[in-house]
Each structure stands twice: as structure tokens, then as C-alpha cells.
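Database export, one record per block. Field names are fixed; values are copied verbatim from the stored entry.
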Amino acid sequence: GLLWGEDMPAAIRDRRITEQIAMQAVMEAEIALGHSPRDVSADNLGYDIESRDGESGQLRFIEVKGRRAGAETVTVTYNEIRALCNRPDTGILAIVEVDDDGEPYPPRYVWRAFEREPHFSVASVNYNIDDLLTVSEEPG
């Protein structure tokens, strides 16, 4: 955004808006559950939100993926996969689809989304959204 200024391509601007809508939807879902979420996306930890469980105090590590409704794939980076693999009981892949009017669908959580880290030379992996949504659940 700093390099392009007002000349940022529409696809990139749209993706960033979709990601922000998704982040807000997950933050609101976490608050509704009685948790205390914190945006750590700028820290490049491999997840976007640290959310402290309101009852147990345990941290949940949430990687948020916002996609336009009807998208076929979601891209997950090596660092994101690795972060969730290292936190099998507390790592969550959150998927939020956003309609054409900018309204988010309710977040869907995938627990234990990844069983093992990809080869070190893999930069990212595209996953079929429908397959991930099949094994997802409501936030809880």
C-alpha cells in the first residue's frame, strides 16, 4: 500500500479489505465466547490472533483466512502451517467467507488443520475451501 498509494491494484485492495472483515468477524466471535482476543498479525508469528480463554486462561492461536464467497482455494504459508502444527490443541484455522456486499458469513474453525509441516522448500500451499469447511465447526 505504501508503494502504490492510490494506484494499488483493485484485486490487492479487495483482498486486504476481505482480510480485515474476516479479522473483525473472528475477533467478535472470540469476544462473544468470553475470550480476550489480541491482533498479532503484524508480528509475523504464523497466526493472526492470540485469544485468551475467559475461563481457563489458555491461549488460542488463530490464523484467519478471509476469502470472497465462492472462492475455490485458500492459500496457507509455510510459516502458518508450521505455527498451527506446533500447537495442535490450541491452534485454529479460521475461515471467513465475505459476500459481494462486504458482509461476512459466520466464522468457521478448523482444529488440527495440518498434521505435519510441508517440506522446508515449500513457500505456501493452496487448499480447497470446501474440503476445509467440511471439517470445520462453529467457533467454540
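Remark 1: The chain has three helices and seven strands.
Remark 2: The CA atoms of residues 1 and 13 lie 8 Å apart.
End of record.
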